[in-house]
Amino acid sequence: MNRWRIATLVLAVLSVVMAVMLSQSTFAPSEKAVNAAVDYVNKYLLQAGITAKLDKVESERTAPFQKITLDVNGQKFASFVSVDGKYLFAQDPINISKVPDMSGEPEMLQKEATDVEGSFKEITGVDVCKESDKPIVYFFGSTTCPHCIWEKPILQSVVEQFGDAVSYHENIDSQTDIDVFNKYSSGGVPMLVVGCKYYRSGSGEAIGEEAEKEALQKVICRATGNLPASICQ
User: How many domains would you assign to the chain?
Assistant: First the structure.
């Protein structure tokens, strides 16, 4: 949810201006404005495969903003829409006079990382973890998660191509490897962790099945050191 946090920080600055501009407004945001806010979150603030939906519009008003609650893969987030439907607080307002507390972030999400194929993150300074000298590929999902259902057979087919070159841990509605899961996620699935060095929250639905297969191959090849050569060319 790093993009979510960054967007919130930017919008927090805008709120100072908006509070003055809209302080005299008495209109609550329209249904169209609320729907536009949800659409904006899904298009620009969330990773592929993660979806937000409107949970409720609350009666609470904070200056020129109306409070709404978004449901993001089962997690609830309080958000605010300006009464004219132009501005959004993606989460509760942040006190920008204080240094943010990062202690609640999963351990690995606090580390420096760069983008690689398929929206995966490569963590700087982390070695590839192995089992019996094979990089471990973790898949965390749920039978009630449509994005997990889409991702699972695609990942399975790619992992099968690597044969004995990797160790595959598939965790569906399971507490197995929960210690690994908690290092990379606050609870959202699907979660993919490749060799403990590469991770992604969400599916690859946005890029399509074939592009997702290619991205998964490339990321796993990174973890295996480009082995086997028949796949990692």
Answer: 2
pLDDT tens sequence for the chain (233 residues): 444 444 444 444 444 444 444 444 444 556 888 888 888 888 877 766 778 888 888 766 556 777 888 888 777 777 888 877 788 876 655 566 666 555 568 889 989 999 999 999 999 999 999 999 999 999 999 999 999 999 999 999 999 999 999 999 999 999 999 999 999 998 889 999 999 999 999 999 999 999 999 999 999 999 999 999 999 98
User: CA 119, CA 204: separation in Å to the nearest integer?
Assistant: 8
For residue 178, tell me if it sits in a domain.
yes
- The 3 state secondary structure assigned to 197-228 is CEEEECCCCCCCHHHHHHHHHHHHHHHHCCCC
The reply to whether 229 falls in a domain is no
Closest CA to 34 of 92, 93, 84, 72: 84
Query: Residue 131 is encoded by which pair of tokens?
Result: 């089992």
User: Are 83 and 22 a contacting pair, CB within 8 Å?
Assistant: yes
HSE value, Cβ hemisphere, 13 Å, CA-based, for 62 = 15
CA 28 to CA 60: how far, in whole Å? 10
SS3 for 141-153 is: ECCCCHHHHHHHH
Is 46 a member of any domain?
Answer: yes
Domain assignment present for 101: no
Same domain, 165 and 220: yes
Range of 20's domain? 2-89
Which residue, chain included where needed, has tokens 């290619």? 214
